[in-house]
Design goal:
Structural class: mainly beta
Helix content: under 10%
Low-confidence stretches: 1-23
Strand content: 35-45%
Strand order of the largest sheet: 2-19-18-17-16
Number of domains: 1
Largest sheet: 5 strands, mixed
CATH topology: Neuraminidase
Number of helices: 4
Mean pLDDT: 82
CATH class: Mainly Beta
CATH superfamily: TolB, C-terminal domain
Shape: globular
């Protein structure tokens, strides 16, 4: 799928800390290629618990594209090449509750969705908005699954965030009816009307990467934007976007001249670039990256300027092994979730000290040991920066 690896970064967004002064000008450069050896992330992170999403054989969560934490529930956008689903789980137990909508082949969104790519919750009016490429529309549902209607849009879109009031922001890597109307950011109202367009891109770049990079995400009160194959993360406030962070990816960064042309297949492996996954609580931030063809995770401390990469973690410490999942999502303003398939844990807990894991995450060892081989449900690990 389009999102595979993540970087965890810690950045200082205030003017001063007691330990160091953060640069007063933006963008802040992140020394990705200069990491601290044998780091222990338990010195930086506090483990806040876990939830295993429980499904049966016929309702496996095959790919967690997005997580939303709504009221007492966890809403999962489950996307795979064979099916699409919006699944709802109990927020405390992880038990499967029900699906919202269903995948259909018809052209009527009232019957279900087609080509769903993202979802977003409107906390003001209490409804879930789905971004459906196949129907070129926003489709709205109540949290209990009741269909509320749909509105047509003019572009396929990739990511969707709610800005408050009557405002929505969509990230777009593909065009639609009008290929000359190609922008990364489209501002919509509730009725599906475009009110602003930002970040135009060249027509030749349309569809480049096939959603393998680039994102628009919310964490807390912040909205973050990263265009395809870029090294820069932008902060979005209203219709204004400011470059905040630049990841120094070194000689493997995608050349600027190549960002506007088609990249696909093995060519992607030549380069390092940012992907989807960003969390910020004001001091710490999270985003994803492809680096040296490998999945990596890292923390950048903006107060000290130090960068910590998962490849240099002390993996003999169980805590550090829980920090190496596939995706990261903001849970609330202070906490983020790392998603890890149980099969990863089975490998890590094999021949491990049960007492050490029980002390860190009570019940996790026995849960993994009792999981059948044909079930690969994701486990959500919650972390908060100290």
């Amino acid at each position: 799928m389009r999102k595979t690896c993540f970087f965890v970064l810690a950045l200082e967004l205030l003017s001063f800390f007691t330990t160091a002064q953060v640069a007063s000008t933006y963008p802040v450069r992140i020394p990705v290629n200069n990491s601290t050896a044998l780091a222990d992330w338990s010195e930086l992170l506090e483990f806040k618990g876990y939830v295993a999403l429980s499904t049966n054989v016929t309702r496996q969560v095959l790919n967690v594209q997005k997580l939303l934490f709504v009221e007492d529930k966890i809403v999962v956008l489950d996307v795979d090449t064979d099916f699409e689903a919006v699944r709802v789980f109990d927020g405390k137990t992880g038990d499967y509750l029900y699906d919202i909508g269903k995948r259909v082949k018809t052209d009527d969104p009232e019957n279900g969705f087609k080509g769903i790519i993202d979802m977003e919750w409107n906390p003001d009016r209490k409804f879930l908005r789905l971004l459906s490429r196949g129907h070129l529309c926003f489709t709205d549902y109540a949290l209990d699954g009741t269909y509320l209607g749909s509105v047509k849009i003019d572009h396929f879109g990739d990511d969707l965030v709610y800005l408050g009031g009557n405002k929505w922001l969509m990230y777009n890597e593909f065009s639609s009816d009008n290929p000359s109307d190609s922008y990364f950011l489209y501002y919509y109202n509730d009725q599906g009307k475009i009110t602003e367009k930002k970040f135009p891109y060249a027509i030749k770049r349309n569809g480049a990467g096939y959603s393998s990079a680039g994102y628009l995400m919310r964490s807390g009160n912040n909205v973050w934007f990263n265009p395809t194959f870029s090294d820069t993360v932008y902060s979005v406030a209203g219709t204004k976007s400011d470059a905040r962070f630049i990841a120094d990816l070194g000689p493997r960064a995608v050349p600027v001249a190549r960002r506007d042309s088609m990249l696909f297949g093995n060519e992607l492996l030549k380069y390092d670039f940012l992907e989807e996954g960003f969390f910020s609580n004001g001091r710490y931030c999270v985003f994803q990256c492809q680096k040296s063809r490998k999945i990596s995770a890292g923390i950048f401390d903006g107060a000290t300027g130090r960068f910590y990469e998962s490849g240099n973690l002390d993996k003999t410490i169980p805590f550090n092994q829980l920090c190496q999942g596939q995706h990261v999502f903001a849970k609330d303003n202070e906490t983020f979730a790392i998603v890890m398939p149980i099969r990863f844990l089975i490998r890590r807990l094999k021949n491990a000290d049960r007492s050490a894991w029980e002390a860190l995450a009570p019940g996790l060892y026995d849960l993994v040991a009792a999981t059948p081989d044909d079930i690969d449900n994701p486990v959500l690990f919650y972390f908060k920066f100290k």
